[in-house]
Amino acid sequence: MTDQSTCGTLIKQAHDELERNANNSMRAYDITMAQYNALLALSGCADGQLSLKELERMLHVAQSTAAGVIGRLEQKGLVETFGNTGDRRIKMVRITPSGTECCRRADQDMSCAEEALLSGLTETEREIFLLLLKKVCCTL
């Protein structure tokens, strides 16, 4: 019998649980967790726009995945795409007012999903957990 308590296994279990709960919550907004993350990245920019290449890097996904996520968001009217004025080969993505509103509402549900995931931890443990996750992610 193998030990299922390895760090990688436990991180994957926590991720899968958070993603499952989040996707269930996001269903009310007709978006997926991947789409929410794209909206969140765009809404975090001062002008609400990024190049598709920047989104790929921020989301840690392949170009084809980013293009698919953005394509579906564009069909829903939550983002718009356009060419960069300086270089038309660069595809730009901008969040729309509808996308901003969707992201704002979904943020509340994400907070609830995260709260459920961390409900077994004290406030101090949560702070330590977040600090350790950031430290691990900085080394990746």
Report on the architecture of this protein:
This protein is mainly alpha-helical. The chain has a single domain (26-138), classed as Orthogonal Bundle (Arc Repressor Mutant, subunit A), CATH 1.10.10. 64% of the residues lie in helices and 9% in strands. The protein has six helices and three strands, in the order H-H-E-H-H-E-E-H-H. Strand 2 (79-83) and strand 3 form a beta hairpin. Helix 1 (7-26) packs across helix 5 and helix 3 (52-59) packs across helix 4 (63-75). The chain starts with 6 loop residues before the first helix and ends with a helix.
Task: Specify the number of helices.
Answer: 6
Largest sheet entry: 3 strands, antiparallel
Average of per-residue pLDDT values:
90
Total count of strands: 3
The CATH topology is given as Arc Repressor Mutant, subunit A
Sketch the topology as an H/E string, one letter per element: HHEHHEEHH
The end-to-end span amounts to 30 Å
Specify the CATH homologous superfamily: Winged helix-like DNA-binding domain superfamily/Winged helix DNA-binding domain
Which strand order does the major sheet show? 1-3-2
